[in-house]
Amino acid sequence: MQGEESLRILVEPEGDSFPLMEISTCETEASEQWDYVLVAQRHTQRDPRQARQQQFLEELRRKGFHIKVIRDQKQVFFGIRADNSVFGLYRTLLLEPEGPAPHAELAAPTTIPVTTSLRIRIVNFVVMNNKTSAGETFEDLMKDGVFEARFPLHKGEGRLKKTWARWRHMFREQPVDEIRNYFGEKVALYFVWLGWYTYMLVPAALTGLLVFLSGFSLFEASQISKEICEAHDILMCPLGDHSRRYQRLSETCTFAKLTHLFDNDGTVVFAIFMALWATVFLEIWKRQRARVVLHWDLYVWDEEQEEMALQLINCPDYKLRPYQHSYLRSTVILVLTLLMICLMIGMAHVLVVYRVLASALFSSSAVPFLEEQVTTAVVVTGALVHYVTIIIMTKINRCVALKLCDFEMPRTFSERESRFTIRFFTLQFFTHFSSLIYIAFILGRINGHPGKSTRLAGLWKLEEDPSLISSCLAPQCHASGCMMDLFVQMAIIMGLKQTLSNCVEYLVPWVTHKCRSLRASESGHLPRDPELRDWRRNYLLNPVNTFSLFDEFMEMMIQYGFTTIFVAAFPLAPLLALFSNLVEIRLDAIKMVWLQRRLVPRKAKDIGTWLQVLETIGVLAVIANGMVIAFTSEFIPRVVYKYRYSPCLKEGNSTVDCLKGYVNHSLSVFHTKDFQDPDGIEGSENVTLCRYRDYRNPPDYNFSEQFWFLLAIRLAFVILFEHVALCIKLIAAWFVPDIPQSVKNKVLEVKYQRLREKMWHGRQRLGGVGAGSRPPMPAHPTPASIFSARSTDV
C-alpha cells in the first residue's frame, strides 16, 4: 500500500524464567487487531527528533510489541499491539496455582481471556513506562514534540451509541456489562455508582420537596410572618452609622414569608432524615458493589499484584519499591496543605470586603431598585463572585495538589491517585463551602450593635471617602434572618454548577470536535485506506487524560456535598441534584463515546478513596446541619419562646398562638440619641427608638440574660442533634451488612469446592487412598444467580 510501512517483528522474551502458555487460534486472530496508536507530526521525520522516536519504538519492539507505521499528509501514525508471548506472560504471572503441582484441569477455570480492554491496558502501561537508553519516557518525548498524542482506538462502540449514549435513553437502564467490556471496570463502576446515587435521590428529593411545599401551606398562616407584615410602627435601625434612613419592619414582609418556606419545624425532621439517608445510601451501595464485583469475577482481584505484573512485563529486571514513610515530607505536605486551606478561608474574607464595597456602591446607586434592595443585590452578586472564584481556584488547587503528590513521591500510580484525590478534594471542599460557612456561622455575628459598628480590620472607614455614603459596618444578614442569605447563596451556586457547568461540559467538547473536524476537512484530503481513515477519525476526537474520569467523580462529590451539607437551609438541593444527574449520565456517555478519544480501560473492584470521601461528607453533613439549625435558623429561639415566654403559659388559652409576640421579643431596643450623628439619618426628627435583631439591653447594650440562655440551648441542641444523628447512622450501618449473605455464600462455596478439588488430586497422587469420587467444580456465578437475590437479603 502506498504511503504505508509495516514493521512486524516477533521477539520472544529474554530468558526462560516464565513459561509461556498456549493461546488458541481465535485469540491469535484477535491479537492482530491494532488497538493503540501513537501520533507524531510528519515534519519530525526529517529532523533529529526522528532518531529519538525510532529509539523509543525499537525499545517497544524489543519487548515483544509489533508496530505498524502509516503516513498521512501531516501526521504519522504508529499502530501498536502486543505479541502473544506478552499475553502468555501476563497470564502466567497472574495465574493462581490450585495445588502443589499445577494441573491442566484445575488451571482451566482461572484462564484469563485476552480481551480488547486487556490488550489496551497492557500496551498503554508499557508505552507510558517505556524508556529509551537515554532514560526518556513517552511524556518527555511528548514535551519535546517527538510524539504528539497517544490513544486507544474506538472499535465496536456502535451498540453503546445506539442503546446508551443518546439523550432519548435518559430514563433507560444502563448497559453496565457492555460499558465494562468496552471502557473497563473503573468507568463501569463510576456509572453504576452514579446510577445508584441518582436512584436513591428520588426519596430524598420527594421529601425535600414535601418539606418545602409544607411551607407554602403556612405561607399566610405563620404568626411570625403576620406580625412582621403588620409591624408598620416598628422602625429598624440603619445598618451603618451613617446610613440614609430607618426601615420599617413591615417592608421585609415578603422576605419573612419566603424564609418560612424552608425555616420551619419540618427543617429539623428533614435534616435528620438526610443524615439517615446518607448512611443508608452508602451501606446499600456497598452491597450493590459486592454483587457487581462478584458478577465480574473480581472479588479476589488484587490491583497491586497486577501492577507488579505489568512492571515485570515492561522490565524483567524491575526492582520492587518497598513502602516508605518520611515524617519530614509528611510534615512539609501538612504545613503546605494547611497554608492552602488558610488561603481558602481567606477567600471568605475577600467576600466580606466585596460585600462591604458592594453595599456602599449599591446604596449610592442611581438605580432605584439597587438603592432600595441593597442587601438582596449584595447577596446575589456575592454568590456570582464566589462562583467565579470557584472556577479560578479549581485550576490553582489542581496544580497545588499535583505538586504535593510529586513531592511525596508515591510508590505506585494507584497510590498517587489516592493521595491526589485526598489533597484535591480537601482544597476543593474549602473553595466551594467557605462562603456558605461564612454566611451560616459568621455573617451578622461580628457587627457589634447600632452606634458601635465593627470596622473592617479596625482601620479603614469607607465613610472617609465622600463618594461613599455607607459606613464600614461589617455586612449583615437580611432583616428576615441569615437563612434567607444562605438559601440564596446555595441556590445560585448549585444552580449555576448544575446548569452552566453542564452546558459548558457538553458544548466545549462538541464545538472543539467540530472545529477539529472542519479544519481537517478543509485540506480536501480523504485517505483511501480504511484503517488510516479510522485512525484519523480517532485522532480528531477530543483528547483525554488521566484525570478525565477523576474530574467526573470530583464533580459528583462536590454535588453530594451540596446535597447533604447545609441541606437544612436548602431542602430543594436533592431535587436539583436528581435532575442534574439524569442529564449528567447521558452527558458523560455522549462525551466518552461520541466526542472523546477512548479512555484506557482500567480494572477496579471499588470506587477507591471516593468511598472514604463520601463517608467524611456524611459526618460533616450531620455537624453542619446541626449547627445551621441551632445558630442560623430561628428554630431554637422559637422553641425557647414558646415554652418559656409564650402567652400560652400565662393565659392558658388554647386559642392563642403560642408564638404571638415573638417578633417584638426577638428585637432589641436602641436609643437613637446614642448614634454618633443621629441628625444625619433621614426622618430622624420624631424617632427616639429603633429596633435591631439581637438580645442586648440598653443603655450599655451588653448581651442580655436571654442571649446567654439561648446560647446554652443552642450548644446543647448541637450536641444532642449530632449524637442522635450519628447514633442513627451507626445503627443503620450495623443493621445493613456491607456484603449480602448471598454473595458471601457464593464465594464460600467456590472456596470450599476448590479445596475439595485440591484434596482429591492430592490423594490421587498418594495412590488414591480415600480419594472418593471427584467433586464437581462449580460454574462461575452467572448474572442471573447473582442478581436474583432480593434487596431484603442480608
What is shown here, in short?
58% of the residues lie in helices and 6% in strands.
How would you characterize this protein structure?
The chain is an alpha+beta fold and 794 residues long. Helices cover 58% and strands 6% of the residues. It contains 28 helices and 13 strands. The strands form five sheets. Strands 1-3-4-2-5 form a five-stranded antiparallel beta sheet, sandwiched between helices. It is elongated and about 100 Å long. Mean pLDDT is 80; it is low at 1-31, 96-110, 456-475 and 780-794.
What does the secondary structure layout of this molecule look like, with pairings?
Layout: E1 4-7, H1 25-31, E2 36-41, H2 49-62, E3 65-71, E4 75-82, H3 84-94, H4 104-107, H5 116-129, H6 138-143, E5 149-152, H7 158-163, H8 176-183, H9 185-217, H10 223-229, E6 235-236, E7 247-248, H11 253-259, H12 266-295, H13 303-314, H14 327-363, H15 368-372, H16 374-408, H17 413-441, E8 448-449, E9 452-453, H18 482-522, H19 530-539, H20 548-564, H21 573-595, H22 609-632, H23 635-645, H24 647-651, H25 662-666, E10 667-671, E11 689-693, E12 696-697, E13 702-703, H26 705-735, H27 741-765, H28 783-787
Antiparallel strand pairs: 1-3, 2-4, 2-5, 3-4, 6-7, 8-9, 10-11, 12-13
